[in-house]
Amino acid sequence: MCDDAAVTTSSGEATHRLHQSVRDAIGREIVSGSLPPGAVLTLEGIQATYDVSRPVARESIRVLQAMGLVATRRRVGITVLPRQEWNVFDPLVIRWRLDGEGRREQLLSLSELRRGFEPIAARLAAERAAPEHHGALARSVADMVVHAASGDLEAYLEADTAFHRVLLNACGNDMLAAFGDLVAELLAGRTHHHLMPATPNPTAIELHEKVALCVRNGDPAGAEQAMRAIIDEAAEALAAADDPP
Q1: Is residue 137 classed as helix, strand or coil in its secondary structure?
Q2: Is the pLDDT of residue 1 over 80?
């Protein structure tokens, strides 16, 4: 029985990986323009191209359809949709766009959006954050300091991402908190595509610390101002960065 369960679990995981692989491959082709709006796909074609079963092809398309990248029409097939139909807030759509040639423009677009909500979230967090949020923000800043000194950019990214997720959760607004994945993809894209300094800017860390202190001290205006400065510093660093390889 245990062996049968293990085989079933392993088979399920393998199928899930196939779904992800096909989904990612087609999704990247769509957002890059290799599959332009109006292009028509078929399940048979997907099966042949990626050497997968019909259920795997169908599930991959179902996910892409939920993202607004494709539409399925009877007697027409699977049609690629124009950009204005995409769910541009979907973390995978963001990631695929960052993997393409227009990643710098996408990052700048995300930065502009971020400027519209994260300073407000910081202000609200200063009014509403609980003691556990104060502690989590302080720990994230301490981790950023350690990892910046060691040059471990992946660990720094993890601490930076944790900081912003905690802040958004601390603001007490579920809709603002839902932007956590968007900010995480922005930060990851900047790091993984070498669009941030090899050594994190000490000023950026100081600003994160200032946000944490303002939130703890109940200073809404200070928290908002410091968060706006973080976003401005990141945008300036992005504009100054060399084009990635």
Answers
A1: helix
A2: no
User: For residue 225, with 0-12 CB atoms within 10 Å meaning exposed, 13-18 middle and 19 or more buried, which class applies?
Assistant: middle
Amino acid at 189: G
> Looking at the domain covering 91-240, what would its CATH class be?
mainly alpha
CB count within 10 Å of CB 41 equals 21
Q: What are the tens digits of pLDDT across the range 66-79?
A: 999 999 988 889 99
User: What are the extents of the domains in the chain?
Assistant: 2-84, 91-240
* pTM of the shown model: 0.87
Mean pLDDT score, 147-168: 98
Please list, residue by residue across 180-219, b when 16 or more beta carbons sit within 10 angstroms of its beta carbon and e when fewer do.
bbbbbbbbbbbbbbebbeeebeeebbbbbbbbbbbbbeeb
Which CATH fold would you assign to the domain 2-84?
A: Arc Repressor Mutant, subunit A (1.10.10)
